Amino acid sequence: MPTASTPIWADQLAPSLDDFARLAEQAFADLPEEFRAAAGEVVFRIDDFADDETLASFGIEDPFELSGLYHGVDIGRRDSMGPAIEPSRIFLYRRPILDEWCERGDVGLAEIITHVLIHEIGHHFGLDDDQIHAIEDAAD
Hints:
mainly alpha; Zincin-like; Metallopeptidase family protein
């Protein structure tokens, strides 16, 4: 049990991949119904880091620089007469998200996970980073 001089988190473990999956599922469930319905059948995957091939494809050397990734054909480019080639996937990378959470220190972990999740869903909707950032800036 922590004492007055011991931080309350001193005996806590870092959230696991399963913990992150639960937080991402809850973040998605908390989104407005219209947003969830528009997102459709997106598959979420939680990994510690992006794999080397993914990092290389973006020219990223430091795996802590990528906290999330959308992989698939965005809904604006799909053939309206047929299904997507493969399911759309959103990757959340645990270690970079934990690193950002620790560095910031001013928001909860669930808030950062929600932010990354919504950002990647924006890519699923066909938005690029500049468009997503403009929307985020307008909301602040």
